[in-house]
Amino acid sequence: MDEQIYKENILDRYKNPRHKKVPDTFDIKEGSVNASCGDSLLVFLSFDEEGKIKEANFDGIGCAVSQASSDMLLDKLIGMKMDEIGNLTEKDIYDMLGIEIGPSREKCALLPLNTLRRWIGEQPLGNI
After folding, report:
1. Which residues are bridge partners to 90 per DSSP?
2. How far apart are CA 87 and CA 78, in angstroms?
């Protein structure tokens, strides 16, 4: 895919997110704020009987990059087990976004991953 298609996908996810809602019920809720720009994120996860993520939602405010990154990451989470979340990397996020992310947008792109890492007790990637 060329970069223009990825940019259009990011804007579509920003304007029409698939996972942005506060669910009535959930098993886990975790939040973070990107102190450098004010983007905020709450992630809600629900698990099935086998320990796999059956529903993943988010709420928050932020730029197109942080909102699209959140929506795309939650797509990837559905069907994963809790212990698999720790295997996710910065590269996974950048690959999903499909465009080069400059230094000023890295924290925006990584906000959902850092939020999940806080929840599982791992050190976030850089300062949020």
Report:
1. none
2. 14
| Burial category of 100 from C-beta neighbours within 10 Å (exposed 0-12, middle 13-18, buried 19 and up) | exposed
In the chain, the DSSP E strands lie at 28-33, 40-47, 53-61
pLDDT digit string, tens, across residues 23-71? 999 999 999 999 888 999 999 999 999 999 999 999 999 999 999 999 9
Full-model pTM:
0.89
Residue ranges and CATH numbers for the domains of the chain are: 3-116 (3.90.1010.10)
Residues paired with residue 53 on neighbouring β-strands, in sequence order:
47
With contact defined as beta carbons under 8 Å apart, do 70 and 41 qualify?
Answer: yes
Collapse the DSSP code of 98 into the 3-class scheme (helix H, G, I; strand E, B; otherwise coil) and give the result.
coil
| Bridge partners, 32 (sequence order) | 41
